[in-house]
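Everyone, describe these structure tokens:
***
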Amino acid sequence: MEKLKIVLDWFPNTNHTGFLLAEKRGWFADAGLDVEISGEVHGSMHLHGADFICGPEISMLDCMERGEDMTCVATLTQKCDSGIVSLKEAGITRPRELEGKRLTHWSPAWFHKAIGRVVEVDGGDYSKVKLLNMDVGDIVATLGDVADATWVYENWENQVLLEAGKEINYFNLGDIDPIFDFCAPAMAAARETLEKKPEAVRKLLAVLDRAYQEVVAHPEETVLEVKDRMPEGSSDALLIRSQRHLTPILLDANGHWGRIRPERWDRMADYMLSVGVISRRRDTEYTNDYFA
């Protein structure tokens, strides 16, 4: 059995149902793989000896700039399902209305180049946004108390807020500026893994392709099958609503999972280069070569 370690971008949620389903049904083992999956909240990516790590394209580019030897090998969704959420009472319906409001952020410089752009594209002044440096693990406890707005994935935090009876405003960043329809969440592999275990990587991606096709075909049944790996206290209704939300964006036009469209990656990478977050583009930033 070939051992592989995967670190998710957050604690396991419906973005990761395909991973959890493949594990539970023994599909990794059937392919000769011994796969360890762990999840944590992290605003800054580090491989820390893992074979794969999930996260947004921007974090991967930042890692590469810092010398972490990785390549993106898959995107979890075919549309970036992220944007800014706030409680309705905060009155934030578009980026420029973040002026004067408390926005949580992560440490890396790319955050400010990204959100600063979308605020300015909308006619706002990013310097007037009140910034709070924190990883948000509990969105319900954070909004309205600690902060006014947070950059989230719609499939999870929005559903948690709605489940808690909150009225929210949300805007998808990609709907405002196409640059923000970048590859997120996505999965990168350590270059060492790609070099030493190429067949294992191909097998892993093939299993995940199969698993996500199953999730799309049976969203309700599959997410409930892995409920024991989802955050404690998640109701069946929340999980099903979240998985149904993701279903239209998990597979590409050919019915496959994971393939990276160059235009999605290149738009954001070129922007990160233009604003100095990265010093150059690299031939090893991403690849589809490990799909059949």
